[in-house]
Amino acid sequence: MPNKLTSNTPTDYFILNNCPSKRPCKKLDCRHHLAIVWDNNGCSSPIFPDVGLRELPETCVLDVANRYNGLTLEDIGVLLGITPERVRQIEFKALRKIKKDMSVVVKQEA
């Protein structure tokens, strides 16, 4: 189980959760790994089943966040192998989830 973050930077996540610094990252159970997708039931499946781990240009979304500040939807799509529209949809869904989660936190603190 991940520790609570004291800061919102990807580097702090690496330190607090003992993320391996060697790349490609072999910690496939990490929710930030780009080779595996996890569903709500805890089942995993490879995102790129025909590509080896060493062949992926990036294996950790936190590396991407640290390295590439201010990427466009097109840039992100190229990195992940998806269309800019799909990136926009994922971003929208993530922001909606964050807002929902934040409203629960605010209600609990009140």
What's this, in brief?
This protein is mostly helical. It has helices at 10-16, 61-67, 73-80, 84-109, and strands at residues 36-38, 44-46.
Report on this model:
- Helix 1 packs across helix 2 and helix 3 packs across helix 4.
- Strands 1-2 form a two-stranded antiparallel ribbon.
- It has 2 domains: about 1-70, no CATH class; about 70-110.
- The relative contact order is 0.10.
- The longest helix is centred in the C-terminal third of the chain and has 26 residues, at about 85-110.
- The chain has about 110 residues and is mostly helical.
- The chain starts with 9 loop residues before the first helix and ends with a helix.
- It has helices at about 10-15, 60-65, 75-80, 85-110; strands at about 35-40, 45.
Summarize the biggest pleated sheet: 2 strands, antiparallel
Number of strands: 2
Radius of gyration, Cα only, in angstroms? Answer: 15 Å
Distance between the termini: 26 Å
Strand content: 5-15%
Morphology? globular
Question: Overall mean pLDDT score?
Answer: 74
Low-confidence stretches: 1-7
Derived from helix and strand composition plus strand pairing, the structural class reads: mainly alpha
How many domains make up the 3D coordinates? 2
Q: Largest sheet, order of strands side by side?
A: 1-2
Helical content (DSSP H or I, runs of 4+): 40-55%
Helix count? Answer: 4
Order of helices and strands: HEEHHH
